[in-house]
Design a protein that fits this description.
- The structure holds two protein chains of two kinds.
- Chain A has helices spanning 2-11, 17-43, 46-53, 73-90, 104-114, 138-148, 153-156, 183-187, 198-212, 224-236, 253-269, 281-287, 299-307, 309-314, 347-359, 361-367, 379-390, 423-430, 433-442, 448-468; strands spanning 61-68, 92-99, 120-123, 160-161, 166-167, 170-175, 179-182, 215-217, 291-295, 315-318, 330-331, 334-339, 373-374, 412-413.
- By secondary structure, chain A is α/β, with parallel strands linked by helices.
- Chain A has two domains: 58-175 and 334-390, Periplasmic binding protein-like II (D-Maltodextrin-Binding Protein, domain 2, 3-Layer(aba) Sandwich), CATH 3.40.190; 179-331 and 415-468, D-Maltodextrin-Binding Protein, domain 2 (3-Layer(aba) Sandwich).
- Chain A has a six-stranded mixed β-sheet with strand order 2-1-3-12-6-13, with helices on both faces. Chain A has a four-stranded mixed β-sheet with strand order 8-9-7-10, sandwiched between helices. In chain A, strands 4-5 form a two-stranded antiparallel sheet.
- In chain A, α4 (73-90) packs antiparallel against α16 (361-367), α9 (198-212) runs parallel beside α11 and α19 (433-442) packs antiparallel against α20 (448-468).
- By secondary structure, chain B is an all-alpha fold.
- Chain B has one domain (84-315): MetI-like fold (Orthogonal Bundle), CATH 1.10.3720.10.
- Chain B has 16 helices and no strands.
- In chain B, α4 (28-58) packs across α15 (285-293), α6 (86-116) runs parallel beside α10 (177-205) and α7 (122-134) crosses α10.
- Chain B is flat.
- The chains are: A alpha/beta, B mainly alpha.
- Chains A and B meet through α1, α2, α5, α12 and α18 of A and α1, α3, α4 and α14 of B.
- Chain B: This is Sugar ABC transporter permease.
- Chain B: Residues 90-306 form the ABC transmembrane type-1 domain.
- Chain B: One of its GO terms (cellular component) is plasma membrane.
């Protein structure tokens, strides 16, 4: 150390220690001052002003919106323009951020942990875990019902907790989850309209695989489509994770039968790829012409229309498949709900934004290329949608290819069916307990009976935890 | 030292206040403390604070959507342990870390010796070896996800052309438990190998040249020099590389989360990804924190053991 100091006096090039300390002190002070100045500047920004003005403030207002990057990109283009125009019209500065749907849970959790972030956050699965820290949307829903028509029951159960009586979310659209099948392949085995039951799916899928070498694609991995497929199958067999009173009912002969069926379906019609799929994998497989049947929204078909038109022409749709007792239920594919965290400053502006978004349902459904269906039964929009489904404005061949989706409300339900999509159902969905249960049996790792018992144990633990938080009803 | 004191003598005698300030500035510990301050602040805010928060969460019933914080003792740990998947998750964590780092230690030692030698194109080989380290973990995992995709993987094409698969056959690398675990191990080894190689290479270059020359003069061959001189001298450095590799692999969630999502089933689920699924995706922050905390004593113990061994080695 001493040597260094002596050198510094000789050369004059090395900074003496005291000068270094003085200099860094000054730099730190300057940096602090600059930060303070920057803070002063931002205090005058629309966002900060909005924060200070509160809901009823008279200063410039701002709202920040976080939502997924839509599977149909034209929706995002439309939404961004519409939100900006809405902001100009209402004197509100609107910021829109899109992120991948898979990143929404982590981003939302981070914002709630920090207690700051976006004023409106849209999820595509029920965001029920956030109920304690969000504004009640009851008044917006009530106003929307008055203005536009009744909210579809399963959309209500995806955003409303009957146990607490709180609308933790505002569900404005939903998406059907039909079967997407390759007509040429299914016609070849004598089923030109595709399978109508899970039994048909097994016999037809096995025959197509044996004769044409084309496999089927129903996922059993950690992603949303696999979760929906598992639920649709269990419901159609008469089982369910919970009953209407929010008691765990998973461990039943019906569920065990459904799990055994899935293992059999895997062995006869699929390959191990279904255990490793992401949400996009079944779309990619169908568009690539490598799969005979998948459970998905129309997004895969829309992708094929531009990416592989020949395959698109061959893709047709089936409603929910019937189980042994004739029950046919499918999960809603996407249910889009906005939550408004308690830190949101301009509550009134946010609510007005949501009301006007529902009012723009005609355009939003159109720009989603009929991917989104309105959650409120506005007669005008519903009639227009039925017309579009009968004659697809996005060039389906034949034009009425999507017509059966007009009945989709009848065979769709929420992920918590027959109960609500409560936080326990949300945790079970997001930790992939059902697809893992299916996969364990299909892989031969365990029997259907023990896999269902193990999954039930996990579900009961989850329900117990959320019951203690007083967010879930039931006792078992 | 004396020169500085001489130069500042006059103001000290005339300004008592300034004298005090300068005494403060002249303290030997001041510069060191000032230089350490950013690192200490970083550790407090970005390591210490999250760790304390995780410990608090693990003893509470906190969820992602609620600021309510009730102390529940060891209940979350009990919930975590009694999850039927927990034993498998712990086992996968150790298997993936152990095998990947065993591979890394062998490969990094070989690579360090190769890169220490003189040959044409050495800079290019070094560049290639370091490439994975410059790639963010998430980006690297996504690239591997595409490479191992069930439909579009190039490995199927190679396997078909090598006759391993029939026409139209698929390896489904991420769909079978063994292959998926192997893939995660390979990616972990791929991404931690460069750092280990650089560390060992630095250690190799620090071995005094005269010792090697002396051994050559004494007639020691390559293997004799390798096992008798170089590896014993490199051991503390290799242990440091091993420590880093274990810590980075044991605590990593990105590779599993992106590459396999823990699947097939829960066959590749590790503690870090499991904690993320339970805590963030599932909204069960307290159990997620408890799951994550199971890594802490293991990592702490490992660090203590390896650093003690390295220290003893240096003492020898």
């Amino acid at each position: 150390m001493a040597g260094v100091q002596r050198d510094s006096t000789k050369s004059g090039l090395i900074l003496p220690r005291r000068n270094f300390l003085v200099g860094t002190g000054l730099f730190a002070a300057a940096a602090t001052g600059l930060t303070a100045c920057a803070g002063g500047t931002s205090a005058g920004s629309p966002s900060a002003a909005a924060s200070s003005s509160g809901g009823g403030g008279s200063g410039p207002k701002a709202i920040k919106i976080l939502l997924w990057s839509h599977f149909v990109p034209s929706y995002d283009t439309w939404f961004d323009k519409w939100a900006k125009a809405w902001g100009s019209k209402n004197g509100v500065s609107v910021t829109v951020d899109h992120i991948n749907q898979a990143d929404l849970p982590a981003r939302t959790a981070a914002e709630f942990s920090a207690g700051a972030g976006h004023d409106l956050i849209e999820w595509i699965t029920p965001p029920s875990a956030y109920e304690p820290s969000v504004h009640d949307m009851a008044d917006v829903v009530s106003e929307a019902v008055k203005k536009f028509g009744a909210q579809i029951p399963f959309c209500k159960l995806s955003s409303y907790n009957p146990h607490t009586g709180k609308y933790y979310g505002f569900c404005h659209t939903w998406t059907p989850d039909p079967g997407d099948y390759r007509k040429s392949l299914w016609t070849g085995i004598g089923m030109p309209t595709g399978p109508s039951s899970w039994a048909d799916l097994l016999t037809g899928g096995a025959e197509i695989k044996a004769k044409r070498g084309v496999r089927m694609g129903i996922g059993m991995s950690s992603e949303v489509d696999s979760n929906m497929a598992a639920r649709a199958l269990i419901w159609s067999y008469g089982g369910a994770v919970q009953d209407v009173n929010e008691n765990v009912t998973l461990n039943s002969p019906e569920t065990i039968q459904a799990v055994e069926y899935m293992a059999n379906l895997f062995k006869q019609t699929m390959t191990a790829e279904v255990f490793s799929w992401t949400a996009a994998s079944n779309n990619q497989g169908l568009v690539a012409g490598q799969l005979s049947y998948i459970l998905n929204s129309i997004s895969a078909y829309r992708s094929a229309q531009t990416g592989n038109p020949n395959v698109a022409k061959d893709i047709f749709f089936t409603p929910a498949l019937k189980g042994p007792s004739g029950t046919a239920i499918a999960s809603q594919h996407v249910v889009r709900s906005y939550i408004m965290p308690k830190w949101a400053a301009n509550v009134d502006s946010c609510k007005q934004f949501l009301m006007d978004l529902v009012g723009a349902a005609h355009d939003s459904v159109d720009q989603s290329q009929l991917y989104d269906f309105p959650a409120f039964k506005n007669p005008t929009v519903t009639t227009t949608l039925d017309g579009w489904l009968k004659s697809d404005p996005y060039k389906s061949d034949p034009p009425d290819k999507l017509a059966l989706l007009a009945t989709s409300e009848k065979w769709s339900t929420n992920v918590g069916h027959p109960g609500p999509a409560n936080p326990a159902i949300g945790e079970i969905f997001d930790t992939n307990i059902l697809p893992t249960m299916m996969a364990d049996v299909a892989r031969g790792k365990s029997s259907a009976k023990s896999a269902v018992a193990s999954a039930t144990q996990q579900c009961e633990t989850v329900f117990k935890k959320w019951r203690k938080q007083k967010l879930v009803g039931g006792t078992k | 030292m004396s020169a500085i004191e001489t130069g500042s003598a006059a103001p000290i005698t005339t300004q008592p206040g300034t004298r005090r300030k300068r005494r403060l500035r002249d303290r030997d510990g001041m510069l060191g403390s000032a230089m350490l301050l950013p690192a200490v602040a970083y550790l407090i805010f970005f390591v210490g604070y999250p760790l304390v928060l995780a410990i608090m969460y693990a003893f509470s019933n906190v969820t992602v959507g609620s600021s309510k914080f009730d102390f529940v003792g060891l209940q979350t740990f009990s919930t975590a342990i009694h999850d039927p998947n927990f034993p498998g998750v712990v086992a996968h964590t150790f298997i993936i870390t152990g095998i990947s780092q065993a591979i890394v230690i062998v490969l990094c030692t070989v690579l360090a010796f190769v890169l220490a030698a003189d040959f044409h194109g050495k800079w290019f080989v070094r560049f290639l070896v370091l490439m994975p380290w410059t790639t963010p973990v998430a980006l690297g995992a996504i690239i591997w996800l595409w490479m191992l995709d069930s439909i579009f993987t190039p490995f199927d094409w190679f396997a078909q052309h090598l006759g391993i698969l029939g026409p139209g056959g698929h390896l489904n690398m991420l769909g079978h438990a063994g292959l998926a675990t192997g893939s995660v191990i390979a990616v972990q080894a791929w991404r931690t190998l460069p750092l280990a190689t650089v560390i060992v290479l630095a250690g190799l270059s620090s071995i005094p040249r005269d010792i090697e020359e002396q051994s050559e003069v004494d007639g020691a061959g390559f293997w004799r020099r390798l096992f008798g001189i170089q590896l014993p001298m490199l051991a503390p450095i290799i242990l440091v590389a091993l420590l880093f590799g274990i810590v980075f692999t044991f605590s990593d969630m990105a590779v599993v989360f992106i590459l396999t999502g823990g699947g097939p089933g829960d066959a590749t689920q590790v503690l870090a990804s499991w904690a993320f699924y339970k805590g963030i995706n599932g909204g069960n922050l307290s159990v997620g924190a408890a799951d994550a905390l199971f890594m802490f004593p293991v990592l702490l113990g490992l660090a203590a053991v390896v650093l003690t061994m390295a220290s003893r080695r240096r003492g020898d």
